[in-house]
Amino acid sequence: MTAASAGAPAKPGRPRLGLSLPNFAEPQVLVDLGVRAEVAGWDGLFLWDHLHGSPAFPVPTADPWVVLGALAVRTERITIGTGVTSVPRRQPEKLARETVTVDHLSGGRLVLGVGLGEPPAEHTAYGRAADRPTLAARLDEGLEVVAGLWSGQPFSHRGEHFTIEEAQFLPAPVQQPRIPVWVSCTFPYTRPRARAAQWDGAVLAAVGAGGTIERVTVAEARAAVNEITALRGPRSGPFDVALATTGLPTEREQAAYAAVGVTWILAAGWLDGMPDLIEAGAR
């Protein structure tokens, strides 16, 4: 598997290094952190895509796509994207327009990370179903629509969840043949790996009790990469494997992950610890 072309090349023998930031903040806070991350030498910055906190966790929440638009014009090199956008709770035509706009503003530095969307309350609070089969069907069909609209050609679609009649979206994305789509693959679920194999990347993560992010082992990463590689079969083109983890692995650990096919390490954490991690992590 080869890394996508967006962003600066990784240092020899290690994956690219990115930050995975919650969008639970005032917008300017996230923009400032993204600018600081580029100055500090990080390769990427990916925003979570949540709608709200909860009555037990009342917190300011910024729209990630508006923030990514600001980051696109405030940065020059760093890869930007989502980790992850819940395609099932978005209208695909709106998502297609947002992604192409940010792709152009950034000069082709956008990655679209996608998944079902957690927690279930972010679906049910707005009157939508949250069962995994329904969300998976909306995700797959939504991605089909987004990719069709990205083509820049007249596009129609009639499916179970979405209908498009002779819509043509211009301009097409800067990145061709499309904006890279990375699919969330959370352990222990295995079905998302088949979905990832059809697109441009996989984001490997392990979530423990209470939603905490746990470290995916090198052996687990190797097994997932081998499975996705087999599922991709003869498909060609760049494919990234990102590993979401708390904090940043040591250089030796990074090299071990790179050896089994991991192309990105995404250091996730709450915002109160991010300034120190940004300054210390990527040089």
From TrEMBL:
Alphabetical GO biological process terms: alkanesulfonate catabolic process
Protein keywords: Flavoprotein, FMN, Monooxygenase, Oxidoreductase
InterPro entries in UniProt: Luciferase-like_dom, Luciferase-like_sf, SsuD_RutA_monooxygenase
Keyword Flavoprotein: yes
Ranges of residues in domain Luciferase-like: 26-262
GO molecular function annotation: alkanesulfonate monooxygenase activity
Keyword Nuclease (UniProt): no
Name of the protein in question: LLM class flavin-dependent oxidoreductase
Organism of this sequence: Kribbella sp. HUAS MG21
